[in-house]
Amino acid sequence: MRRGCGSTGLGHPHPAHDPGQASAREATLVARASRARSEKRGVDMDRLTRLVDDETGAATAEYVIATMAAVGFAGLLVVILRSEEVRGILTDMVQRALTVQQ
User: Fold this and answer.
1) Using CA atoms, how far apart are residues 30 and 45, in angstroms rounded to an integer?
2) Is there a single domain that holds both residue 92 and residue 46?
3) Residues 42 and 72 in one domain
4) Which of 3, 10, 22, 77 can pair with 15 through a Cys bridge, CB separation 3.0 to 4.6 Å?
5) More confident residue, 60 or 22
6) Residues 94 and 76 in one domain
7) pLDDT in tens, 25-82
8) Does 14 share its domain with 34?
9) Same domain flag for 42 and 6
10) In terms of residue numbers, what domain contains 49?
11) With 80 as the cut, is the pLDDT of residue 87 above it?
12) pLDDT on residue 44
């Protein structure tokens, strides 16, 4: 087994010298190992990959989240604007804006 600079002992370049190659190689090895384990369990990896990559309904979910945030914000504004203190501040501001000073 070779050891030393430029080798991991497996005949591959040392990951520190080329991190891009190392991460791609590691990802490939992990994917192969995962596929092998899944095939032993009877899991159809192609179907599973299609299901995970499928984004059907993602836009709808995003709209639901945005709508719920808007409803929450509107509810907070209603609570704030119903307080007497805020109502007085707003009334005073409108009166000053509409009053003509001479």
Assistant:
1) 14
2) no
3) no
4) 22
5) 60
6) yes
7) 787 777 777 766 666 666 677 777 777 777 777 788 889 999 999 999 999 999 988 8
8) yes
9) yes
10) 1-54
11) yes
12) 73
Q: Based on the domain organization, do 41 and 67 belong to the same domain?
A: no
- Who wins on pLDDT, 23 or 63? 63
Q: Which two tokens stand for residue 46?
A: 């192609």
d(CA 26, CA 8): 13
Interatomic CA distance for residues 99 and 10, integer angstroms: 85
* 7 and 44 fall within a common domain: yes
Per the structure, the count of domains in the chain is 2
75 touches 82 (CB < 8 A): no
Same-domain pairing of 7 and 41: yes
* Residue 93 identity (one-letter amino acid): M
Per-residue model confidence (pLDDT) at position 33: 74
In whole angstroms, what is the distance from residue 80 CA to residue 98 CA? Answer: 24
Query: Over 7-71, what HEC string results?
Result: CCCCCCCCCCCCHHHHHHHHHHHHHHHHHHHHHHHCCCHHHHHHHHHCCCCHHHHHHHHHHHHHH
